[in-house]
């Protein structure tokens, strides 16, 4: 009885180790496997970069409008609204920073 349990455990672990190789192979349709997963990751980061660019334009615009309103109508000095401008530019710069990390991924030049 004990030999069957040990043998079944060994068989189970060997099967688990071999199943990783099976999942890494490309599917007959050509969309699965590692290449498909790599393409999904690249697409995710490209979409994320596009989203950051759109949000950064909005954030910088709002920061400049707010600072301009404060200077023009609330009689604030530039030093009073400098934190808003600096914060807006840093948040807006997130798209550029993401672009540096994903620069080689555009145009299908992926190397996964």
TrEMBL record:
InterPro entries registered for this protein in UniProt: TrbC/VirB2 (IPR007039)
Domain of life: Bacteria
A Pfam family matched in the record: TrbC
Signal peptide: 1-26
Keyword terms, alphabetized: Membrane, Signal, Transmembrane, Transmembrane helix
Ranges annotated as spanning the membrane: 50-69, 81-101
Name of the protein this chain belongs to: TrbC/VirB2 family protein
């Amino acid at each position: 009885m004990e030999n069957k349990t040990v043998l079944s455990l060994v068989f189970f672990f060997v099967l688990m180790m071999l199943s990783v190789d099976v999942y890494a192979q490309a599917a007959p349709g050509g969309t699965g496997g590692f290449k498909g997963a790599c393409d999904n990751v690249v697409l995710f980061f490209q979409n994320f970069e596009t989203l950051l660019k759109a949000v950064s334009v909005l954030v910088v615009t709002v920061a400049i409008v707010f600072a301009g309103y404060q200077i023009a109508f609330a009689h604030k000095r530039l030093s009073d609204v400098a934190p808003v401008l600096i914060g807006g530019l840093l948040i807006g710069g997130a798209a550029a920073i993401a672009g540096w990390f994903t620069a080689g991924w555009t145009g299908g030049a992926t190397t996964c």
